[in-house]
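User: ok so my PI wants both of these folded by tonight, can you help

Assistant: No problem, let's get them done. Here's the first:
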Amino acid sequence: MVLPPQLATVLDDPEEVSLRRDEISTRLMGVYRRTRDPEAYAWLFRLNSVPLGRSLQRTLPRLAPGLDPDDVVQDAFLSVLRYPRRFEVRGDRAFRTWMRAIVWNAIRRRLRRERRRALLDGDALDSVLDPRPQPSRLAMDEEEGESVRQAYALLLQVYLEAYRGLRPRDRARLRLVEILRLDYREAAERLGERRANFKMAVFRARRRIFRAMAARLGSPGAEFAED
């Protein structure tokens, strides 16, 4: 299974993604909620993990000193992975609102696990994740930090195995766009390829990775190996 064509087209336009990240993330989460498509989840992580981590780096020192922003981000995305049915599409900013609630609970859980006391300024946290405060509607279950780290490490390991299984040319293409963050035109020029052909090759390489991940992880991902 792959993303709906219209959504896949939008994701291929970095400028459009930058301008409409909240709306696109909400649509991706809606796809993942319905299908458990690992490609939708991977895009959610790619679009939101870095900006979320940067925001927490600026804010956590005064909200909850000592907490690691990367740990909070991992906790939050593992909750997205495990509890997609709790997501409700209510407007273009639904994913941002939902993630704010998840992050809030991830911080509270870590503080409780570490037996620490801190006053969390809810308004300050809202200003990081959403400039317009909205009510939190989600209460996440207690989860142990070690299990979160193990699950995240497993996901990365499965992705790495799938990546290593690609042909060298495909690995080179993905390295240019996923790691060096080049646009399709510049990356294609470096490899001496036409932009349109390069873009399609990258799409197919990504699809092979997600199919391999689905097969490796087993049910419910097995169904995603089919077109």
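One down. Here's the second:
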Amino acid sequence: MGANVTELQALLVLNALPNIGPITTNRLLDTLGGDPRRIFTADNRTLQSARGVGPVIIDTIRGWEQRFDLAREEARLAQAGAEFIPARDPRYPTALREIHDPPIGLYQKGNYRWNRPAIAIVGSRRTTLYGQAVAKRFAGELARSGFCIVSGLARGIDSAAHEGALEAGGATAAVLGNGIDIIYPPENLELYRRVEAGGAVVTEFPFGRRADRQSFAMRNRIISGLCAAVVVVESDVSGGSMITAKFAGEQGRTVFAVPGRIDQSTSAGCHQLIRDGAMLCTSTDDILEELNALPGFRLAADGSAVATAKPKPELTAAEATIYACFTGGAILTLDDLAEHTALPYAELAPALMMLELKKLVLRRIDGTYEARA
């Protein structure tokens, strides 16, 4: 890669290359001082010093010109009227930057600037009239309260959520599981255009990338990562919305589930979420009251949602030392923390527990730890 390549161009290439992904790319950026251009000029030994980087990834980086046409991608961006927003750009969504595996950049169409709190409304593609009506009503009421409504532009609940926000004159954002030039499902072309005009269409995938099972799962983590809360209106137990709810829980987001009929498979997933600890939701009042009780939110006098600065809890010296280890979205085991901090386990364990109680650190299902968003 030539010396005249910009940081933005380097990020476009890294974002599109196979076998790497955002976690590995961010590790490489941390290793090389944050300049993506250095990834293409560093020697193999330096690249391998980043965790998870081996011969396959190095070969992919060295042969990037055979895998990605940078000039063509830039031409497509200009032609589509889209932009690629790097994670370090002030316009990049703050909430998304805080998750442990944020995209290194977002392709975006539409002028929305992520300047208000967001709530995701998601659910089944095969939905009932009841589910569509609830999603549309909730989206409209929350949009009028000042929230951006985020969903995935899919059939069913997603489409109803976008429609409700647009009809209320509010902001809505669609997160795609494919390139921004691909309309899926194709019958949502007009809705795509309306969402772009009234908010934003975003994706982490380059032009031409088709949707598949992996890309939809990656899309779901962005939907939850953008938001303060996720509302599941209808879903069966194996639906994609259950994956979004799982990501939301791991990211420290609040999960709401709307109950339905016990003989409808489309509500079985919501009922399972409620059994597992999700907030039962029968009206938008349930959502607003719960968010109003959280640090970082308050309701204005007119009932609209306003983001506020999160208070910073006081930390002991040990807690501050441990918390600093999670800079950059690191996910660490207890042994990792002991190595990084040089604290004895007798001091490390209780300090880590206090960070959990102060809602600064989250213990994941696999026993590792990460900073809460």
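The chain is about 45% helix and 15% strand. The radius of gyration is 21 Å. Good luck tonight!
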